[in-house]
Specification:
Length: about 475
């Protein structure tokens, strides 16, 4: 009986303490004009619910509070916007009290000149310099042949193998970019670079606690090593005075490039290119392989497009700009993959002053999560939204509608969109014209917070022509 009373006492005590803590945290953030919502526990907020329940947490909060609500996630008081109109407004109106709001660990590791860390004229300059490296004419004249050469060798000898397509597409995204950045030296650099780069990526997604053995510490260390490798590369090129037709060559040539960057800025630009295209391109490629496997009719149509291109060429001929431009169905497959898998859930911004949005008052220093995931499943935009149906994208107006946020929007819309599509298209070209594949089975796929196969996605590959 006494034990029973003690247990009841402890449970009641815990309930009271929890209620007190939750109430106290709500009061701490109480301010007139803020959107409705809950702030969760002191310090941790609602991060656990957000990470555990993912999209359903967002949908539940929206059902309760509307499409703009407050929360406390990932260490910050946050306004979540699931309102397409407001999302568009935020993306289009950077500067007027709104700036990128990416986590500190990411900014520290990607460098202070990285594009997400700069704004105003510095952003214009870094963005201009980047756009000049990945413009359609540079893709056509310089990059496409490098991608082609890389993909051919990357996809060699997959026949009769069990391949972890997640691992292969990650290597592909990084090494293909490295080839575009430093054509001739990339194969010498690639092994050491890859090890450091993977540590850098993990570091950007960690808590910024700089203690030995933390991911953040390893990420900072990886950044140092990558910076050293790139500095050596730049010094070597200056000494040799050879000209190079690659991204680093363009960045270093003051004549052709009107955006003159310092060495530090060039290095941060290179890290940005590698980082921004890495997870987006690799995950979209992996998920395209998954969806194609599950939808034989789509695979058949895609293969038809690529075999048609091959028929017009000799086996050793690389893909050229006209081939790439003719890949209408491939482009549709890439958009549909990006939409259905939601490769990017949204983007982060922060307020630099108190401001009004949709009639709510947003305090200075709050993060805004421009959450675009649900737009991907809006039946008005995408009838039968949970079906993998690339044909819907053959109507090109879908790519130009106001709520097309697969590549962001406004002043920070992805400058690497066409480059990313060219890489994935070239990968798919060689993959579907050379191979058939089936899934080994039993692999899990996580959809949130990132699309990921925790233990890899294994496929058994065989030669198409045997
Ligand atoms: C399928 C592939 C890709 C997807 C889905 C994608 C998606 C996105 C999205 C959603 C944003 C907006 C971020 C924001 O507003 O904060 C963005 C920005 C960016 N992307 Fe991509 N991206 C892809 C490929 C690439 C590639 C290959 C590059 C390499 C050049 C790249 C470079 C960038 C950069 C530098 C930014 C920041 C732009 C700025 O802040 O002005 N992306 N991307």
């Amino acid at each position: 009986m006494a034990i029973f009373t003690v247990i009841i006492g402890v449970v009641l005590g815990l309930c009271l303490l929890s209620t007190f803590l939750l109430r106290w945290n709500e009061m701490k953030y109480k301010k007139k004009g803020l959107p409705p919502g809950t702030m969760g526990w002191p310090l941790f907020g609602e991060t656990t619910d957000f990470l555990k329940q993912g999209p359903s947490f967002m949908k539940n909060q929206r059902a309760r509070y509307g499409s703009v609500f407050k929360s406390h996630i990932l260490g910050c008081p946050t306004i979540v916007s699931m309102d397409p109109e407001l999302n568009r407004f935020i993306l289009m109106n950077e500067g007027k009290g709104i700036l990128p709001g990416y986590p500190q660990s990411m900014l520290d590791i990607l460098g202070k000149s990285n594009i997400a860390a700069v704004h105003g004229s510095a952003h214009k300059n870094m963005r201009g310099a980047l756009l000049s490296l990945v413009s359609p004419s540079v893709i056509r004249d310089q990059i496409l042949s490098k991608i082609d050469e890389f993909m051919r060798s990357h996809l060699l000898n997959w026949n009769n193998q069990i391949i972890d397509i997640q691992e292969k597409t990650k290597e592909m995204a990084l090494l293909s970019s490295l080839r575009q950045i430093s054509g001739t030296e990339s194969s010498l650099l690639s092994k050491e670079f890859m090890r450091e780069f993977f540590n850098l990526v993990v570091g950007t997604l960690s808590l910024p606690i700089n203690l030995p053995n933390t991911n953040y510490h390893r990420g900072l260390q990886a950044r140092k090593n990558i910076v050293r490798m790139l500095e050596e590369l730049i010094d070597e090129r200056r000494r040799s005075q050879e000209t190079h037709k690659d991204m680093l060559g363009l960045l270093m040539s003051g004549v052709e490039n009107r955006y003159k960057l310092s060495d530090e800025e060039m290095i941060d630009q290179i890290i940005t290119i590698l980082y921004s295209g890495y997870e987006t391109v690799s995950t979209t490629s992996m998920m395209a392989v998954k969806y194609l496997h599950d939808h034989p009719r789509v695979l058949e149509e895609l293969r038809k497009e690529h075999l048609g291109i091959r028929e017009r060429k000799m086996a050793e001929d690389p893909l050229d700009w006209n081939d790439y431009k003719s890949m209408k169905f491939t482009r549709a497959v890439i958009f549909e993959t990006s939409r259905l898998a939601t490769i990017v859930n949204g983007v982060l911004r922060k307020t630099t002053k108190e401001m009004e949005l949709n009639g709510f008052v947003i305090p200075e220093g709050w993060r805004i999560y421009v959450y675009t995931r649900e737009i991907n499943y809006d039946p008005c935009l995408y009838p039968d939204p949970y079906t993998f149906n690339p044909w819907r994208w053959l109507d090109r107006s879908l790519e130009t509608q106001n709520y097309f946020f697969l590549f962001g929007g406004g002043t920070r819309q992805c400058p690497g969109k066409e480059l990313g599509i060219a890489e994935i298209s070239t990968f798919l070209h060689y993959f579907v014209t050379k191979y058939r594949w089936e899934e080994v089975g039993g692999d899990k796929l996580m959809k949130f917070p990132r699309v990921e196969a925790p233990n890899g996605l294994h496929i058994r590959v065989s030669d198409m022509h045997k």
